[in-house]
């Protein structure tokens, strides 16, 4: 009798222990994935931040923290495991070592144009490609040399970890090195916009998602910087927007990226914020 009671007690303990362990296993990943963090590209910040707010409103209990800091920072942090998603305007191979980039999974979520912008008191609205290069490399230093008023040109530039800078340098400046000594270094698109709006004679570059009445976008070779012109290949300065994960996305991370790629977001929020859905792009890189 005692022996049977002891066996039953042992069996009950074993069942309870297994049940407890299974509960921990089931709850562990989901509890961790109730909250994720995202950092990187300031160009992608408006979309990532607004989509995160919409997602959290639709999914109670989920918490998504979004910060900028530059594409290089986002890629480094997602590789190190400091964040769940690293946003970037450039491919990981352009910022990380080859062996590091191989560990990341690329999720291309949209495209975005990048425009040269000036302070609204600048009376120039079009530059040739060569004039743009000459301004950013310091060869042209006064707006009168490109048809404007006699006014000093002040370059507002970004640090080396900026994906927006890398894209602008590659496609607008044809790879030419900027005049670093003349540049004011700003690493947040919002700060760049504010600085240009407050600095007479200034010029910089912003993703379309930051364009408004505070700055004036310039045509390049007569082509207006619009999403339509990016999509049809007429306007050359643009980038894919990437959300990188370390390995395959899982849990809340995957759910959020899937939400960004859903028709609901692509057909509404993406275009509203002046990004271009991948399905609308008629050109590829």
Automatic annotation (TrEMBL):
Record keywords: Cell membrane, Lipoprotein, Membrane, Palmitate, Phosphate transport, Signal, Transport
Its membrane topology: Lipid-anchor
Residues annotated as signal peptide: 1-26
UniProt-listed GO biological process terms: phosphate ion transport
Pfam families: PBP_like_2
GO cellular component terms, semicolon-separated: plasma membrane
Cell compartment(s), UniProt: Cell membrane
GO terms for MF: phosphate ion binding
Entry similarity comment: Belongs to the PstS family.
Protein name (record): Phosphate-binding protein
